[in-house]
Design brief:
Layout: H1 2-10, E1 24-28, H2 32-44, E2 49-53, H3 57-63, H4 75-82, E3 87-90, H5 93-99, E4 102-105, H6 125-137, E5 141-146, H7 154-165, E6 171-176, H8 186-191, E7 196-200, H9 204-217, E8 226-230, H10 231-262, H11 266-274, H12 295-308, H13 312-339, E9 348-352, H14 367-377, E10 381-385, H15 391-398, H16 407-415, E11 418-419, H17 422-428
Parallel strand pairs: 1-2, 1-4, 2-3, 4-5, 5-6, 7-8, 9-10, 10-11
Length: about 425
């Protein structure tokens, strides 16, 4: 109801941005989010030319090959249908930005590893670089959409860059359009989303830009699922959604420890509470803990935001979700060691699954990596199998300095790594 009021309140009869019809779309960043999202946009909007660009020529070459750089069920078919028709992958960033009517910024926003906010705040250097590149190449009107996960009020920073560098006749409207994709079901999530969130300034030009982006999604998304908000609400909604989902995982994992101590069955407890419609049954499966590129990064971002806003109690609350997730991984490794007579030195342990979840090859922040770390620290020999993760990625992850703090011992453990084939699985079972 409130969103409906907002729409009516700012809906203009005409505006300069309203005359801009989106015929060409550019996506800066050919990663997981940009590649998947804009491939589906091209698939569903054959009249719109979609160009996905990246400075990494090898990544672009992979998108133009039969072997895509990421795995998602259904993505291969969508790319092959649209590629060469109205979907293009290019390393020529400037040309694509210059001709585009609408530009998605979908670059990496990793957690900072140094300086102010180290370990919590998002590093926005790629966002800033993209904004400066866009404004330097723009001669008329464009809509710029932040698709990357960003801290609240990041759009304001982009607008300030535009304002400081724009030339006469340049109009750039900044929107927030966060993604809510779950790896392994990203294509299904894009084709049938629970909602599409678009945030913009509450002005005539801002509303007109939101309607332009809404029109693209309306090719396949029902109007009632397209939610329009102000920019800051859109940005905060993304962080909040991931924080709530991660919180549920840590909550059931905390209960799993209680169940093991009391003799209760966590599966039965999860089913019992999940039948309560107020709670629901999603994200109530006890596990090693959450992983992936979003949950931990977004919670840390939220923690840093709360600290910056002088809300230490709120920051501590959300930081506890991260602490409990780390505890669960350590606890699981400890149980393995205890079950093997309190030592795993020189014992061969098989790990089935290395990605952070099924149906994906993404290993970022995977719980399996940290489980392997704890077992490697105890001298175990590891046999790792994952049908979607390449062997060089497994080796790279296990040799990372944060995982193997002793380089010599780390190399030794990795040398013991054996990658088994699907045929060997049958023999082992």
């Amino acid at each position: 109801f409130a969103v409906g009021i907002a729409r009516v309140a700012v809906a203009p009869r005409s505006s300069p941005m309203a005359v801009c019809t989106v015929k060409k779309v550019c996506c800066i960043g050919a990663g997981y989010v940009g590649g998947s999202t804009c491939s589906v946009v091209a698939y569903k909007c054959p009249e719109i030319k979609v160009t996905i660009v990246d400075v990494d020529a090898a990544k672009i070459a992979a998108w133009n090959s039969p072997d895509l750089p990421i795995y998602e069920p259904g993505l291969q078919e969508i790319v092959e249908t649209a590629r060469g028709r109205n979907l293009f992958f290019s390393a020529d960033v400037d040309s694509a930005v210059t001709e585009a009517d609408l530009i998605f910024i979908s670059v990496n926003t990793p957690t900072k590893t140094f300086g102010l906010g180290k370990g919590r705040a998002a590093d926005l250097k790629y966002i800033e670089a993209s904004a400066r590149r866009i404004v330097s190449l723009t001669k008329g009107r464009k809509i710029v959409v932040e698709k990357s996960t960003v801290p609240v009020r990041a759009a304001e920073s982009i607008e300030r860059i535009f304002e400081a560098n724009r030339t006469e006749g340049v109009e750039l409207e900044v929107l927030s359009n966060p993604e809510f994709l779950a790896e392994g079901t990203a294509v299904a999530d894009l084709l049938n989303p629970s909602r599409v969130l678009i945030g913009g300034s509450q002005t005539a030009s801002g509303y007109a830009a939101m309607k332009q982006l809404s029109f693209i999604y309306s090719h396949w998304v029902p109007e009632e699922k397209i939610i329009l908000t102000n920019t800051w609400s859109s940005e905060l909604s993304k962080l909040t959604a991931n924080a709530f989902l991660a919180q549920r995982i840590s909550s059931i994992n905390a209960i799993s420890a209680v169940c093991e101590a009391t003799g209760a069955d966590v599966t039965e407890v999860a089913h019992a509470i999940g039948t309560d419609f107020r709670i629901g049954n999603k994200f109530l499966q006890a596990s090693l803990g959450f992983g992936g590129s979003c949950f931990q990064k977004d919670i840390l971002n939220l923690v840093y935001l709360c600290e910056a806003l002088s809300l230490p109690e709120i920051a501590a609350y959300w930081n506890q979700v991260i602490k409990l997730n780390d505890y669960q991984k350590r606890r699981f490794a400890t149980r393995i060691i205890n079950s093997l007579f309190n030592t795993v030195t020189d014992k061969k342990i098989t790990i089935f699954g290395f990605a952070f979840k099924k149906d994906t090859g993404d290993t970022r922040e995977s719980a399996s990596i940290y489980l392997c770390k704890h077992l490697m620290d105890e001298g175990a020999q590891l046999v790792v199998f994952d049908p979607k993760v390449k062997d060089r990625q497994i080796i790279s992850d296990l040799k990372h300095p944060l995982i193997s703090d002793d380089p010599d011992r780390g190399r030794q453990c990795v040398n013991l790594l054996i990658l088994i084939s699907v045929e060997q699985i049958d023999w082992m079972l």
